[in-house]
Amino acid sequence: MDRQGNIINPSEDPKLSKETVLNFYQKMTLLNTMDRILYESQRQGRISFYMTNYGEEGTHIGSAAALDPSDLVFGQYREAGVLMYRGFPLDLFMAQCYASTDDLGKGRQMPVHYGSKDLNFVTISSPLATQLPQAAGAAYAIKRENMNRVVICYFGEGAASEGDAHAGFNFSATLECPLIFFCRNNGYAISTPTNEQYRGDGIAARGPGYGMLSIRVDGNDVFAVYNATKEARRRAVAENQPFLIEAMTYRIGHHSTSDDSSAYRSVDEVNYWDKQDHPISRLRHYMLAHSWWSEDDERSWRKQSRKMVMEAFEKAEKRLKPSPELLFTDVYQELSPSLNKQRESMWRHLQQYKEHYQLDLYDK
Amino acid sequence: MAAAVTRFFLRGAGSKVPNTGVSTRGHSSFGATLLKLSPSCNVRTKTQRRHAAHFTFQPDPVPTQYGPTQKMNLFQSITSALDNTLANDPTAVIFGEDVAFGGVFRCTVGLRDKYGKDRVFNTPLCEQGIVGFGIGVAVAGATAVAEIQFADYIFPAFDQIVNEAAKYRYRSGNLFDCGGLTIRAPWGCVGHGSLYHSQSPEAFFAHCPGVKIVIPRSPVQAKGLLLSCIADKNPCIFFEPKILYRAAVEQVPVEPYTIPLSQAEILQEGSDVTLVAWGTQVHVMREVANMAQEKLGVSCEVIDLQTILPWDTETVCKSVVKTGRLLISHEAPVTGGFAAEISSTVQEECFLNLEAPISRVCGYDTPFPHIFEPFYIPDKWKCFDAIKRMINY
Ligand SMILES: Cc1ncc(C[n+]2csc(CCOP(=O)(O)OP(=O)(O)O)c2C)c(N)n1
Ligand SMILES: [Mg+2]
Hints:
With 364 residues, chain A is of the alpha/beta class. Chain A has helices at residues 18-43, 57-65, 80-85, 90-98, 131-145, 163-174, 206-210, 222-239, 267-276, 279-289, 295-318, 337-352; strands spanning 72-74, 121-122, 151-156, 179-185, 188-189, 192-193, 213-218, 243-248. A 6-stranded parallel sheet of chain A has the order 2-1-3-4-8-7, with helices on both faces. Chain B is globular. Chain B is α/β, with parallel strands linked by helices and 393 residues long. Bound molecules: thiamine diphosphate and magnesium ion.
């Protein structure tokens, strides 16, 4: 698909149904709307931190759609769209970012560290690239189950410089793991541009060095991402081997709410990608050309999606925080005697000095 | 309140923004810019309030012995130390993730432009690489100042630090060393950092003879101690309390100066209880000492340990001989924390002087939690309560 949404090579048209394509579009735009509202809410101090996915929506939705829902996902942190595609409700995104009592992670992690057992999405961890060798191990175990599942492991081109990335690549190749490595090459690791990250031919070129199939794909073309991931999945399952995808995209937003990217890149550069090559506008052009979407549809969907996000947002904001009791659980499967003593001493302390703690914000 | 918020969101949404029409080319803004909330709706409901800082920074008197001073916060005092180093030592290089544009905490702002990109540069994103590279620079006789973006992310470099840097001199019979290496890393809690932007990992490295570990409490201390680390002929880890980067402001000497390593500083003399801490927690202790004086009439001696390894046992033990009571406090989990080491040494040295069991007020034995941070940290009330219990023992 080119920037005007025309299919360049008809033989590569995935020929998805109208319903599927509309779903792609709605998920990509819903993600974008959620990002804008949560970004703004961080700016106002309502949540402590946020990371947007602007400009990378195509890599999330295209790859997620090509997988089976039972495939296990290891993410980095900028893959909220994958979880959204799988049906993670807005309420739970909000609950995690607000660390409310409804947060499946029990309020322990920073915003955007989502996880869902039901949706086979392993909880995000901040230390970079640690998920790569873990994904290899998971894929190895899944291969032995023989259930035609694969593991997909997302990571940034920056994280690919970590030693763990090498371990993950090499283990998965030598141990023949049905694993898709999905690299989001968005041009930057915080302020560091790719030419200070590597001097070879990107991440895809590393595949052959490990004896691993690899492909580079236009990450802003949701269909191309879909095709590549579909084929990678097919081969990973059929041949029990890892497959490396490098999706070329661009991080339109700041790295996170702690970052101001104007310190290291020009507004013109950002605008170029935002205005000229955005995965959402590409797909919209495609839908318009097929008369699957109209200006009215756009308007009403916008209104509706914004309302959905706002409702979830408000709901989460009103909820209590999880009980302080949960500070001590899950360190081990069982509560050790010494930790139990610490727990009791915390409660005694909070009882005695309660006027100095905002206990009313927390569940009992 | 929530209703007002919605109204503002929706009102914003109604205002027209360029490129929102279906037929326009740009994507730019689905769900849009539109969400700019007016400041007036920034009134917070109870659930949204952020916690106030758990400490009050106490600046020291303006130092007079090192020449002219300038107002600096802690990150600027680090920049100043690095600036002095680059100016005076032509072999010195400074590197790490995102260091070139000034670093995510702004500690290296302006240095690349001033000294060139061969001296202040980005590395690929790889902590084991950063430390290994730094060791190599030092082994070749140059000065290396390596930045690890957060202390929480130092662990990929654990092998390079523990098995390489710490043992270089010993294993080569002093033929080779990497004493020219200093590793800097932002450290400690910030109020909302959760598991991986809050840790205080000094105890892991304190189990490792051959490295020095230093943690400053203020801009003036930070500059002098960092320059000592850089000058020191042993590999040093310099942990910077990141909550103080902006919150701590002092008059800092512009010229280079050093503050001796392995010397604790008595910040306040007292007769009843010795309080030992380092980094941010020193300020909690100072406040606690005032509380103890006011509310209990108890006189506390406050000691900033400053160097964790090798630490100043003499200053601490002398103080405990005088007061007979010791409270040690750090944010890291209590089990195996450095307070345990201090406690054990003091117990050996001062057993007959002790009037009460040594008290440790530290983090619980859990990972550092996000929303529970106010309950997790060893705040002033927990420390105050520990003093009360020691006095009443
Ligand atoms: C081990 C480790 N080192 C450093 C960091 C700090 N950090 C967080 S994100 C980031 C950049 C990652 O860039 P990339 O992998 O390209 O992902 P992107 O943010 O571009 O999606 C860094 C350096 C970290 N989280 N973990
Ligand atoms: Mg990147």
